[in-house]
Amino acid sequence: MKRYEDLKNLVVALESDFEKFYDKKNQAAGTRVRKGMQDLKNLAQDIRVEVQDIKNEG
Asked: Dihedral through CA 22, CA 26, CA 32, CA 33, nearest 10?
């Protein structure tokens, strides 16, 4: 469940940058959103691999 918490925390951490980018058109926030989304993608891939490994062990 630690990985799930990491995933949730990353999404929550991006909320203010999403608001700044979409509502206030802050370009720097857009850069942070893109970086955060890349981190999210990488974390999701790590979780997928971990789940597959655990599944194959059983």
From this structure: 10
